[in-house]
Amino acid sequence: MTRKLLSDYGMVLVLIVLCVLFSVLTLKEQTPEDSAAVARLIEQINSEFKKSDIILAVGAVNKDSAPFAEKLGEELGKKGFGNTQVVVGTPRDLRLALDDIGAKGGRLAAIATSGNVTKWPMIELIGEKYPEFSGCKVLVPESYIWPDFLKRSNLLAIVDRIVVIAVIAIGMTMVIITAGIDLSVGSLIALSAVISTLLMKKMGGLQASGWIVLVGFLAGILSCGIVGGLGGFLVARFKVAPFITTLGVMMMARGLAFMITGGFSIYQVPKALPWLGQGRSLGIPNTVVLLVVLYAAAHIFMAHTRLGRYIYAVGGNKEAARLSGVPVKSVIVFVYVISSLAAGLGGCIQTSQLNTGAPNIGVMYELYVIAAVVVGGTSLSGGSGRILGTLIGAFIISVIQNGMNLLGIESYTQQVVLGAVILGAVLLDKARSGGGLPGFLRKKV
Amino acid sequence: MRRIDKSFPGVHALKNVSMKLHRGEVLGLVGENGAGKSTLIKVLGGAHLPDAGKILIEGRPVHIPSPTAAQQAGVSIIYQEFNLIPDLNVRENIFLGREKTRMGFVRAAEEHRKTLQLFRKIGINIDANARCSELTVAQRQTVEIAKALSVDAKIIVMDEPTATLTTRETERLFAIIRDLKSQGLGIVYISHRLDEVFEVAERVMVLRDGEHVGTRDIAEITRAELIEMMVGRLIESEFPKCAAGLGRERLRVENLCRGKAVRNVSFSIRAGEVLGFAGLVGAGRTETMRLVFGADKPDKGRLFVDGRKTDIRSPGDAMRNRICLLTEDRKGQGLVLIHSCRENFGLPNLDRFTRGMFLDQRTERKEFSDFVESLKIKTSGHEQLAMNLSGGNQQKVVLAKWLARNADIMIFDEPTRGIDVGTKYEIYLLMNRLAAEGKAIIMISSELPEILGMSDRIIIMHEGRIKGEITDVANTSQEDILSMAMA
Questions:
Q1: DSSP letters for A49-101
Q2: What's the average model confidence in pLDDT over A298-315?
Q3: For B311-345, what is each residue's pLDDT tens digit?
Q4: Per-residue confidence at A143, pLDDT binned at 50, 70, 90?
Q5: Distance between CA atoms of B89 and A109, rounded to whole angstroms?
Q6: Whether the Cβ atoms of residue A351 and residue A273 lie closer than 8 Å to each other
Q7: Which of A121, A158, A163, A328 is geometrically suited to a Cys-Cys bond with A287, CB 3.0 to 4.6 A?
Q8: Contacts with B348 from chain A: Cβ below 8 Å
Q9: Mind listing the pLDDT tens digit for each residue in B168-198?
Q10: What is the mean pLDDT of residues B261-276?
Q11: CA B10, CA B63: separation in Å to the nearest integer?
Q12: Can you tell me the distance from the alpha carbon of A38 to that of A68, in angstroms, rounded to the nearest whole number?
């Protein structure tokens, strides 16, 4: 069983190795900034200080530190520390606050803060610059060692980054399993984005309701499906090479997207637009929910339905499939329609993440999508491949990008590394299916 | 070759096999499918490395790790599937990988001269500048032989060289083989057609289940004895025909036409009947059946299934009308080679294996298990890939997938091509059983003994037309059919 899993999804190992690698490389001292940390800090203050002491809650302007300081100030106020002040901003703001306290002749008892603020020189030099505050204590939640890579916010960022590509890769996997290819998906992202946002703009713009967003999305997705269906028809009926057909569709769709908006982006979008790409349901990001649902459905479809089996058969041997009664042409049209619908959905997600309908999004995405599918173990010659493998392939790409960002590697180097890793992953996969690494290296070509 | 041993995952393909080939001799190599003939040859040709054992050529041990090394050692192998590149011409194919060059440029004239020299040597006349895709199968075969000779081979191995040749072309090939023999080459001749082995070989070596059963002088063994050695049991008759009672008309075809391949073909077949289609390769038999099955569109013609006029536009239509077609090209059209046996079995039957929205894989597995048992399919499991099966077992998987559809009209196109004696026999018994169940069976075959041995009635085709029909099969000879098929 394990062996079968490994052979079907060998790329899981690569993904795990990458995650471990980046976790080790990004190990860092972390100071917690969540509500539990606030509570602990308040307990400490409660036991060590009098209610009348002057306490500063300091935070930098970022999405972890600022809420921490504000929350701390609020909670201290509730506990009866009436002389608490909240300072959110730059070191300069802190200095102004200290000057102010000094001018009023107050005596600062403590500075409570977290994260990067503790590294401000101001904090360390407080005794020198303000001798009257030399007794002031700096209170920080207890720190611990944890990789940046595994922080909740970072893991969510990885999903956000890859969700569009991963969704489209579902359709691409099916297309590639039929021994086809779909180059048009990147352009269809843009087409879907502009059609859906244009519709939302016409139907009320900023004031439009959530239903209008849904209608816009459906319109964008369906128009992509129609375009893809036409492409699939050309491939199936006239046996035009999929590469050329979808190349043509790719150019036309991109051009159409620019024509529709006159080259501009659409900003007059409803307030409900970001829900899909940035919102949460029951505390889980919608993008995560969407990925799980879509991949589960696609996996079941490919492994446990008749049409799924037909898709494999068409890619494995078109003629044998046809002579076994498989409606080959319909199957081919179907996979291109699915691929385009997925691209349309990807466009909606992207639009929702950006909160804008732009005709220039999704450039080069088709190549990342194809890379995800191939890294996931689907053969370009058709007939074999796994949907869940594709998900892993997509994550491998995203994890590499994210990890390199965390390590501060510049973007040009990132491209080189990403390309090399894609090649390495594919070679590794070949080696695994070809009877182990030693045999693979010995093999004569 | 001494004590060659080779295992693959799950299969012990060769068990301590030794083979001896003399100069100027033709050694027949026979055995059922999966007996290890191909593996033995691939070891000799450098495609596989043996786990144990030695190869000696002219008394010296040689190491053959690759096909190139085999060529250098003087071994040339002509595989069953041709290795010619269709878009290159004859000369380019012969010198492929060993081009005669000067400063990086191909010396075409030099190659051309050498090619003609080779052709003279084996007495053939083919345009060295013709593209290989334009050649007939027989011509391609001779080009392969020329290519094999061009490397100064001492040993030539031919794997099923006559599988796609006509009788006359086969005679031509034998003449070449005898000529090569007299020039002192050693030839290993692999074939399922025992007549040919008796005609051309001096000695015959038999493999069974990876073991060397024995090597005999051809003069000292009878055909029946040879079959017994191959199969491991006695087979009384090669064609166990028993006629079933004929029922009502199942299929009638009227005036079927498609281009030049099929011209005005009409015939009918009744339940319980085995209708043989004889003719030369390219006579339009396969093309006719593809029209009946809806694989190609006819220009004209009508089809009646069980007396009702029926439109068949696709294989799916044909299957719904309970017609099935077992193609002659197993690998190209019968199977999805990179998929498992079970998936291949299921493919035409998925409508039956669907419950609601989803596939019922348990039923699929169970039915396949039944067929694996009843047809005695040798696999390492349901999930074994079709491409890893031997030819006979591949054919059995194809049989299983169509038997499971329980069609009433079954078209068998060359059902026993490239299949060993034992499996052939099983297929004949199966055809008897199907006929007895009231199915109508159309059998296309290029092997006249098979046509004569198994058919109730024979239709002979020539250049797309029906040339004649024989109802009194018992009093017909191979020559009778041949004379109709050729003229």
A1: S-TTSEEEEEE-SSTTHHHHHHHHHHHHHHHT-TTEEEEES-HHHHHHHHHHH
A2: 94
A3: 999 999 999 999 999 998 888 889 999 999 999 99
A4: confident
A5: 95
A6: yes
A7: A163
A8: 324-325
A9: 778 888 888 888 888 888 999 988 788 888 9
A10: 93
A11: 26
A12: 7
Token output for A236: 């199936």
Name, in order, each residue with C-beta under 8 angstroms of A99's C-beta and a sequence gap of 6 or more. none
CA dist., res. A358 & res. A157, Å (int):
22
Supply the pLDDT for residue A5: 57
Task: Give the percent of chain B with pLDDT over 70.
Answer: 96
Tell me the fold of B249-486.
Rossmann fold (3.40.50)
List, by residue range, all CATH 3.40.50.300 domains of chain B.
Answer: 2-231, 249-486
Q: Are B446 and B422 in contact (CB under 8 A)?
A: no
Give the minimum alpha-carbon distance from B289 to chain A in angstroms, rounded to a whole number: 12
Average pLDDT, chain A: 85
**Residue A233 amino acid letter:** F
Instruction: For residue A223, count other CB atoms closer than 10 A to its CB.
Output: 20
Residue B64 is encoded by which pair of tokens? 């053959």
Under CATH, which number does the domain B2-231 receive? 3.40.50.300
The predicted structure's pLDDT at residue A444? 42
* CA distance to partner chain A, nearest, from residue B471 (Å): 31
- Give strand ranges (E) for A213-333: 280-281, 284-285
What is the CA A59 to chain-centroid distance, rounded? 27
Closest CA to A115 of A6, A29, A56: A29
**Three-state DSSP class for residue B103:** coil
Q: How far is Cα A164 from Cα A342, in angstroms, rounded to an integer?
A: 9
Interface membership of A206 toward B (CB under 8 Å): no
Domains of chain A: 32-142 (3.40.50), 150-436 (1.10.3470)
Cα–Cα dist B477/A164, whole Å: 71
Give pLDDT tens digits for A112-139: 777 777 777 777 777 777 777 777 777 7
Among A370, A377, A373, A372, which residue's Cα sits nearest to residue A432?
A377
Q: What ipTM does this complex have? A: 0.76
Which among A313, A319, A384 has the least Cβ separation from residue B347? A313
Give the Cα separation of A389 and A396 in Å (integer). 10
The neighbouring-strand residues paired with B443 are B276, B412
- The residue-averaged pLDDT of A207-222 equals 89
SS3 B251: strand
- Per-residue pLDDT for B11 more than 70? no
For residue A438, pLDDT beyond 60: no
Q: What is the CA radius of gyration of chain B?
A: 24
Nearest chain A CA: its distance from B332 CA (Å):
7
List all residues of chain A from 243 to 302 with a beta carbon under 8 Å from chain B: 300
- Cα dihedral B377, B210, B383, A393, rounded to 10, equals -160
Cβ separation A309–B346 shorter than 8 A: yes
Nearest chain A CA: its distance from B343 CA (Å)? 8
- Asked if residue B41 lies in contact with residue B157, where contact means CB atoms within 8 angstroms, the answer is yes
Quick check: A323 and B333 CB within 8 A?
yes
pLDDT at B59 over 60: yes
The chain A residue lying nearest B344, using CA atoms, is A313
Give the closest residue to A294 by CA, choosing from A154, A390, A397. A390
SS (H, E, C) B169-219: HHHHHHHHHHHHHHCCCEEEEECCCHHHHHHHCCEEEEEECCEEEEEEEHH
User: Among A398-407, B415-424, B442-451, where is mean pLDDT lowest?
Assistant: B415-424
Averaged pLDDT for residues A365-370: 93
Exposure string over A318-350, b if 16+ CB within 10 A, otherwise e = bebbbbbbbbbbebbbbbbbbbbbbbbbbbbbb
